[in-house]
Write a structure and sequence with these properties.
Mean pLDDT: 96
Strand content: 25-35%
Strand order of the largest sheet: 8-9-10-7-11-12-13-14
CATH class of the largest domain: Alpha Beta
Radius of gyration: 20 Å
Distance between the termini: 29 Å
Low-confidence stretches: none
CATH topology of the largest domain: Dihydrodipicolinate Reductase, domain 2
Largest sheet: 8 strands, mixed
CATH superfamily of the largest domain: Dihydrodipicolinate Reductase, domain 2
Number of helices: 9
Structural class: alpha/beta
């Protein structure tokens, strides 16, 4: 049996402590061997609470540890690329939280670092490997709702704390970067191609200047995807997928609870309100465990990571275009010219 991949975690972010680390520890291929924080006491506390053998008081110490194979990077958005590059230059594989960069051009520098160092780097979009989403895409490919024509999604929560990193414009805060990136990537996942043009409307918080409400339309000709995301709205999320002969509804598309089954509603439209719809129920899984094991497997077997940087870059190109559209009031094309060919 292959040795487990030994992981180090940059920072003691809440998502790492409460979701990702415990989930990866339950996996079969990953071992969380160390955690680092700029606050040494915080690192020691996290290590003690989670049963992690090593705690470091700086990121540099962790990257210098020869016993660490891979790094999980859940740092604030503006630190994703610089610290992922530093990890790669130390020979560490990197699983970096979404969005992988602040812009598509910045994501390109990470691709260049990956190619230069020969390590594996992927984006931590855990939804793209969840069995729920794999089943939905299978249903689309086998024609269960006819030809795909429209995807509609919403994702929101309420947080108006100016000290929260999600509300700091200069480090990549705001609704589109934090949660709008999910309907962008999953619309691309479902249509299995890139949008030709996009348009967006943004409302910004007058004090914090982050986008607190963003609505967007992506043109996948002959289909379209639309979504609304907000950081000062009632917490909610959902998605509906419409084809020429049916629709699919996903109750909880993004923060899928690890302790409950997930459901896919498939409706042929014969009775309004979906009363004749059938429901497929999938067993409960932890998408962070799956994510960690799949990335570890890619390291062990030297295969492609689940969400390669080329895909992350294409997602950022759409997000860049949405921000431009909000400023110009026009349809904008995601800029991919000069960027590497997408590998998905």
């Amino acid at each position: 049996m292959l040795r487990k991949v030994r992981w180090g975690v940059l920072g003691a972010a809440k998502i790492a402590r409460t979701k990702v680390i415990p989930a990866m520890q339950r996996g079969t291929r990953a071992e969380i061997a160390a955690v680092a924080s700029r606050n040494g006491e915080l690192a020691r506390q996290a290590a003690g609470q989670l049963g992690i053998p090593k705690a470091y008081g700086s990121y540099e110490e962790l990257l210098a540890d020869p016993d660490i194979d891979a790094i999980y990077n859940p740092l604030p958005n503006h630190l994703h690329v610089p610290w992922s590059i530093r990890a790669a230059e130390k020979g560490k594989h990197v699983l970096c939280e979404k969005p992988v960069a602040l812009t598509a051009q910045e994501a390109l520098t990470l691709i260049e670092a990956r190619d230069r160092t020969g390590v594996k780097i992927g984006e931590a979009f855990m939804v793209r490997t969840h069995p729920l989403w794999l089943r939905v895409r299978e249903l689309l490919r086998n024609g269960s709702i006819g030809d795909l024509r429209a995807v509609m999604s919403h994702f929101s929560y309420f947080n108006n704390d100016p000290q929260n990193i999600r509300n700091m414009l200069e480090i990549g805060g705001g609704a589109l970067m934090d949660i709008g990136c999910y309907p962008v990537t999953m619309s691309r996942f479902l249509f299995d191609r890139e949008p030709s043009r996009v348009v967006a409307v943004i409302e910004r918080d007058p004090r914090m200047r982050i986008d607190r409400l963003t609505s967007a339309l992506l043109d996948f000709s002959p289909g379209q995807a639309s979504f609304v995301c907000g950081t000062q709205l009632v917490p909610s999320q959902g998605m509906q997928i419409f084809g020429t002969s049916g629709r699919i509804e996903i109750e909880i598309p993004y923060n899928i609870p690890p302790d409950q089954s997930s459901r896919i509603l498939i409706d042929n439209g014969s009775v309004l309100g979906g009363r004749n719809a059938r429901i497929e129920e999938l067993a409960a899984v932890d998408q962070y465990t799956i994510q960690g094991d799949l990335f570890s497997q890619a390291i062990q077997e030297n295969t492609q990571v689940a969400v390669p940087l080329e895909n992350a870059l294409a997602n950022m190109a759409v997000i860049d275009a949405l921000f431009r559209s909000a400023n110009t009031g026009l349809w904008e094309q995601p800029v991919r010219s000069g960027l590497p060919r997408l590998k998905d």
